[in-house]
Amino acid sequence: MKVANTSHRGVLISVKPQYANSIVEGVKTIELRKSFPLDLPKDQKLIIYSSSPEQKVIGECVIKEVHKMPLAQLWDFCINKAMISWEEFEAYFEGKDSGVAIELIKPRRYVEAQSLVEYSDKQVKTPPQSYQYLNL
C-alpha cells in the first residue's frame, strides 16, 4: 500500500526479515545501527524493507527518538527491546565504541508488501546499506 503524498520525507532502512517482521508487529521497539542521523524531525516515518529472501517493503513505523551512546550503556538501554542476543549485539558492533538506538512507535504492516521500485515510485532501485531518505 503506497502512502499518500505528503510534504515530509521518510527514511528507508533495510532489515533482516526476522527483525523487520518483529518491528512491524510491534514486538521489536528498538532498531540498532552503527550510525544514523541524530537530528531527524519529530515523528519521522521509518519505512521497513525486509531484506533477502523477502526483498519487499513490508511496513512502517514512527521514530520516537534516536540515541547515540557507548556500547555498554546501549546494551542496558535496549536489552529487552531490540530482540537480539548479546552475541549478536557484540558481533554487530565489533570494533565500535558506540552505537545508535532508534526508538520505534506506531508500527504498521502494509496489507500488501511491495518491491522497492514500486514503493518508492522508482526513487530507489537497490536497498540502502544504512539508510536512505525518501520523498513520500
Q: Which short descriptors sum up this protein?
A:
136 residues; alpha+beta; Archaeosine Trna-guanine Transglycosylase, Chain: A, domain 4; 6-stranded mixed beta sheet; 4 helices; 20% helix; disordered N terminus
Detailed description of the structure:
- The protein has helices at 17-24, 71-78, 86-92, 116-119; strands at 9-15, 30-33, 44-50, 56-70, 98-114, 132-135.
- With 136 residues, it is an alpha+beta fold.
- The longest helix is centred in the N-terminal third of the chain and has 8 residues, at 17-24.
- It is globular, with a radius of gyration of 14 Å.
- Mean pLDDT is 91; it is low at 1-7.
Sheet having the most strands: 6 strands, mixed
Q: How does CATH name the architecture?
A: Roll
How many domains would you count in the coordinates? 1
Question: How many DSSP H or I helices?
Answer: 4
Looking at the structure, the CATH topology is: Archaeosine Trna-guanine Transglycosylase, Chain: A, domain 4
Portion in helices: 10-25%
- Categorize the overall geometry: globular
Q: Quickly give the structural class.
A: alpha+beta
